[in-house]
Amino acid sequence: MSANEKLDAFISYRRSNGSHLASLLKVHVESRGYRVFLDINNLPAGRFDYRPLNSVARAKNFILVLTLNALDRWLSDKDCSD
To answer: What Gene Ontology molecular-function terms does this entry list (predicted)?
Structure first.
């Protein structure tokens, strides 16, 4: 996928417990002919990486996969350091 190619959807998820669901969602959406960005193979886990922002900007839709405890780390970050 080129850096300027338009996307139909960007899928965001918590890697620790949402990657299987996000991958399944990607397969189903792509099977209907849509172009989808999913960072499983492209980005390292951990702190937020700003590289996907270009892909978010190119996408018509943003799909957020909220799995159990997906927001725990964010909610417990009192200093907003992560």
So the answer is: NAD+ nucleosidase activity; signaling adaptor activity
